[in-house]
Design goal:
Blueprint (H helix, E strand, L loop, with lengths): L1 H24 L1 H20 L13 H17 L9
Helix pairs in contact: 2-3
């Protein structure tokens, strides 16, 4: 019983370290997603589409999702290239 608890702790620690490494490698993209979502929402709120016929800016959800996608893509351009070994 004690062995299974130790194994569970080891697997959990490995899982957390793996996820943290992924987040560290892609922090710039995640920042872009958050900044883009905020920009998309603010665009909808202050500029938006008065007639309601605009596909992207007629609803806040559409504008926020589009902004987060564009922000993630834009910030991923500045991600440093990984060296191949």
């Amino acid at each position: 019983m004690n062995l299974s608890n130790d194994l569970y702790k080891i697997i959990t620690i490995h899982y957390i370290k793996t996820k943290m490494n992924f987040i560290k490698k892609n922090i710039l993209v995640f920042t872009g997603i958050i900044a883009g979502a905020l920009a998309g929402y603010l665009y909808w709120k202050y500029i938006g589409c008065l007639s309601g016929t605009c596909a992207i800016t007629s609803k806040p959800v559409n504008s926020t999702i589009y902004g987060s996608a564009m922000g993630g893509l834009l910030f991923s351009l500045f991600k440093p290239q990984q060296k191949k070994s």
